Amino acid sequence: MRKSFALTISLLLLVSVFGIISTMAIPNGHKVTATPDKVKVGELITVTTNFYSEDPTIIADGNIPKGDAVLVSRPQLLEAGGPDETYTWVYRATQAGTIRFDFSGKTLEAVIPRVSNPVTITKASYPMNKFMNILGFGTEGA
């Protein structure tokens, strides 16, 4: 009788632990997207998420040189945010390279990656450079 009672209690505890874990788990439906994938210095990058967070950290993408961007606008936190709510950050590209936007932060939720797709920033071409090359400026020798 004692064995069956102990077995029933331990099975009940095991099932309740899995039930609590499944209800308290963080949903993995967080989406972070950065568009467009390729921009020139001075152009705008739009970062959208389906969750509200602090401003993301700009990180390098692998061994590729790290570009940079400055924040232009951030979303307003709405009181009645629903599951289909979209939040938008806008950045201006300031330095050539490849970047990602990391929303992981310093919270307990940092285990779930919340990193955007890579954005490649290239140098902007200036029309004056082509004109100067035609005239021979900027070339060595002469």
**H/E series:** HEEEEEEEEH
User: What is the CATH class of the domain at 27-121?
Assistant: Mainly Beta
Most strands sheet: 4 strands, antiparallel
Instruction: Name the average pLDDT.
Output: 77
Tell me the strand order in the biggest sheet.
1-3-6-5
Task: Give the name of the CATH superfamily of the domain at 27-121.
Answer: Immunoglobulins
CATH topology (level 3) name of the domain at 27-121:
Immunoglobulin-like
The number of strands is: 8
Per CATH, which architecture of the domain at 27-121? Sandwich
Rg? 25 Å
Helix amount: 10-25%
Residue windows where pLDDT falls under 50 for at least 5 positions: none
Summing up helix and strand content along with how strands pair, one would put the structural category as alpha+beta
Kindly estimate the percentage of residues that lie in beta strands according to DSSP: 25-35%
Globally, the shape reads elongated
Give the helix tally: 2
Can you offer a commentary on this structure?
The protein is of the alpha+beta class and 142 residues long. It has a domain at 27-121: Immunoglobulin-like (Sandwich). The chain is built from two helices and eight strands; from the N terminus they run αββββββββα. It has helices at 2-24, 127-135; strands spanning 32-35, 38-40, 44-49, 57-60, 68-73, 87-95, 97-102, 119-122. The protein has a four-stranded antiparallel β-sheet, with no helix packed on it. The protein is elongated and about 100 Å long.
SSE arrangement:
Elements lengths: L1 H23 L7 E4 L2 E3 L3 E6 L7 E4 L7 E6 L13 E9 L1 E6 L16 E4 L4 H9 L7
